[in-house]
Amino acid sequence: MTPLFRHHNKRVRRPSISPAPLVFTLAVLLVPHFAAAQSKPAAQSPAKPMTDAQKDAAALKADEARIAAKKAAEKKAAEAKALAAQEAREHRYSPALAKEDVSVAKFYRNKAKYDAAISRFRSATNHDPRWPVPYELLGEVYEKKNDPGHAIAAYREYLKLAPHAHNAKDIEKRIEKLSNDQKRRAASER
Fold it and tell me: What is the tens place of the pLDDT at every residue in 52-82?
C-alpha cells in the first residue's frame, strides 16, 4: 500500500517508485563508457623534431607576444600618468577646501576615528601646503595614535611653517619628549 501525504489539505496517495529502474538505466549508460576508458591505454606519440619553418613560426609568435606585452605596459604607464595628473588637478591649491577638510578632520578626531582624521588632515595639507594648522593637528592625532615618528615629522613641518607661533615652545618640548620616548623604546627592544 502506498503512503499518504497531504497536498493542499487533501490526502493524496503517493505513487511508489522503485529505485531499481533508475540504477539499471545508469548502469546501462555509464558502464560501457567507463569500461572503454579503462581498457584503452593512453596513446603517446613520439615527439617529432621541429622543422625550421615551425621554429620560425614559434619565434614570430613569441616576438608578437613580447610586442603586445610592451604595448600593454606602455598603455598602463600612460593611464597611470593621466590618473596622477588628474589627482594633481583635484588637489590644487584651495584654502577653502583645506579649511573644510580640517573641520571634518576635527570631527573625526573628536570621535576617535584617527585614520579618517589623518586622511582629512593630509587632504588639507595638499589643498593648502603653506597653512600650518593641519600639520599641528596631524601631529596631535599621530601622537594619540601612538605613532611618534609621524607625529614628530608633522610637528617639525608645523614649526617650519610657523616658527614664531604662540605655542612653538610647547611643540618643541613635545618633539623632544617624543624623540626621547622613541629612543628609549628602541633601546629597550634591543
Answer: 888 888 888 888 999 998 888 898 888 888 7
What does the alpha-carbon distance between residue 174 and residue 156 come to, in Å, rounded to a whole number? 10
Q: Which long-range contacts (CB under 8 A, 24 or more apart) does 3-11 make?
A: none
Lookup: cell for 21: 529502474
Locate 50 and state its grid cell: 621541429
Q: Rounded distance, CA 157 to CA 110, Å?
A: 23
CA distance 66 to 79: 20
Q: Which residues of 146-164 are buried (b: 16+ CB within 10 A; e: fewer)?
A: ebbeebbbbbebbbebbee
Q: Where are the domains of the chain?
A: 61-90, 95-189
pTM, rounded to two decimals:
0.53
Residues counted in the chain: 190
Please report, as a single letter, which amino acid is at residue 32: P
CATH code, residues 95-189: 1.25.40.10
